[in-house]
Amino acid sequence: MKLIRIHPADNVAVALSDIAAGESLFVDGLSITAAENVARGHKIALRAIAEGESVVKYGNPIGVAKAEIPAGAWVHVHNVRTGLSETASYEYCHRTYPLPEMAPRSFRGYRREDGRAAVRNELWIVPTVGCVNSIAAALVRENQHLVTGSIDGLYTFAHPYGCSQMGDDHAQTRKLLAALVRHPNAGGVLVLSLGCENLTQEQFKAELGTWDDRRVKFLVCQQFEDELAEGARLLQELAAYASQFQREDIPASELVVGMKCGGSDGLSGITANPAVGRFSDRLVALGGSTVLTEVPEMFGAESILFSRCRDEEVFQKAVRMVERFKDYFVSHGQVVYENPSPGNKAGGITTLEDKSCGCVQKGGSAQIVDVLEYAEPVTKKGLNLLSGPGNDLVSATDLTAAGAHMILFTTGRGTPFGAPAPTVKISTNSALYNKKGNWIDFNAGSVAEGESLDDAGDRLLDYVLRVASGEKTKAERHGAREIAIFKDGVTL
To answer: Model-level pTM greater than 0.90?
Structure first.
């Protein structure tokens, strides 16, 4: 099979492999001849599409024809434009879909003293200001001997903020870093400060609220003659505390899994993203939680999600989240549809609607139970929406701060980065999986080769439970652990 028509209403199909001009093609009982070369992941017209007519994929409009597009023609940026604008109106039309029946599953994780589950037992150093990044790195480098027994690793998360910020940016930095300190995957945390930054230790402790002083230690570097020696002493205490935790059986219902995509291509919405959607439905059916973010990559497909909000209150929260992000674009003089990226276009994605309709496939068919602010923790079991941008590092950090034990990251182009939480890279095509085996953990390209989405979802659930039980992702093996904090305002 060289073509797939995703929905019966579609007037385009997607090439599952490269197509040469003049090839005879068959899909859904239709016979067409390719008028020109069409690369894998790109679209071909199943019939003539008139100028001004909607181009339909996923059963939804993904753009408007700039000129008449003949049957068999390549359909892309040269002959399609976005149909989006800065304004839209939404109506709540509630829909429900059945979830699969699932037998109980479990993983081998850690049980924290406050009752929360974790999939890693690591020591984290969280700098409150970028000035101490090098000290944090030295502490990690010089104290690797603490990584022994049940302690899975020692890491720090460099960033440039914590000083010279005001207003919302200052508050967001404080909120994000405090959320990382609370993350259950950290068995012990050293909060590292300089001493003169505007994110003071007093402010940070107020943001953090209550904490266990066996699990969280504080070091202000300007207060000690030898901050490395003091840091090593505190890390030794944290390691002694964290080493008491051992893996045990924990129900899969306690897992929280973040979902995002990056470096997407024309197969993302056909293979990897819907496979993640099948996984999400399975985890939710088991009583677990999933989190979907990247609000700008919901534009043009938000109604698909809004119809699954479990009640009017959640619907209104979802609408406000999307409208705030549109206002954010407009306030900076940018159009909301300044997307997809050059790499997305090279992979076959034509418009933001095209990208968004593929992106939201990761949400599966479960009801949306809550809509969270930036770095706000998950508190309700089921599918959650999380406010955050599309940027890979910013949104992956946001998902971690919301409490995701791990992150599923679908990609058609490949990327090596990793969030603080284990980051599973899922390829949309087998060629990427075979080429970048040092980056990719799971191949969903097999869906384009005949594997059913349900089978891919089952296979992904099995893999997630193995990672939750300690199997390391490629990013973890390479030491890829990074954060990025959402910033909007003035730097002093």
So the answer is: yes
